[in-house]
Amino acid sequence: MNIATAVEKSRSPALRLVSTKDLSRNDWLNVRKGGIGSSDAAAAVGLNPYQSQLELWMIKTSRDAKLPKVDPNDETSPMYWGSLLEPIVAAHYTKRTGNKVRRINSVLQHPDSDRRWMLANLDYVIVNGGDAQILECKTAGEFGARLWKDGVPEYVQLQVQHQLAVTNKIAADVCVLICGQEIRVHRIERDDALINRLIELEQKFWMYVETDTPPPADGSESAATALKCLYPSDSGNTLDFVGDTEMSSTFSDLVAIRADIEAREKLEAELKQRIQQRMGDASRAKFGTGTVSWKRSKDGLILDVIALMKDQPALLSTYPLIRAGTRRFLINT
């Protein structure tokens, strides 16, 4: 028995919280709300490029009714194809490595009583993989493949380290299918220093959930979506922040940054126009550090709605569609 295996055996195994074999998707989602799962780990610590802490908090506190949701049967979504291709990726992992895998069919829970909020759903466990005993399967399309060019993306590494923390295992393999035609296998070793820091930050996020306190917005598109869903309407009230030093400083910084952006956008437009003016009717221009192109796109065909409504105004009452109003954020100084 090697040292790593001996260390692993000295730790308590994960608890099986609930079987997922006959669990409906809605019930499974409700179970996940009871803790931080491995796929939540990066978002919980603010390092998921697709989901903010605020959006994750809304989900965990059951405020997610108005959040956009991915239909698991939508054939245009990466989630659909990821689920469909997962067993194929696992089969090719076995073919590539010779390691056999099997499903767990359970939501796992950290064995320590003070970390029971740490949950994990494993894609597969590796039966004969030596140190690596967890298999995480991923698929990456044309856009997602860019995140894998230097190895396993940070948010996936955090997902796997969370799994290793819950299960007390020492290593995992990540098998990714790139653009539907290339299989890559990456080994992730347990990093106890990283896991300790991850647990510390996840625990801080879980306190937001337990105290029903929203975490700060981070400027991401996900946080913007969350705020729109949290506060879709205004009450007509006016808040006085004149004596609030922190909010007054935030407002001053926002005004200054907007002025700087406006100045930079004007400069950008001027520099672009200088190049366009020198190019004239040329399609491309080369420089010592790069190139630019200035080409006419193909003509497109669209519906002239204004002319249509002028000729047939009755269509509006026959096919009405109410567009919900949205809140506009305007600055006055």
UniProtKB/TrEMBL annotation:
Gene3D superfamilies: 3.90.320.10. Residues 27-169 form the YqaJ viral recombinase domain. Pfam families: YqaJ. NCBIfam families: phage_rel_nuc. This is YqaJ viral recombinase family protein.
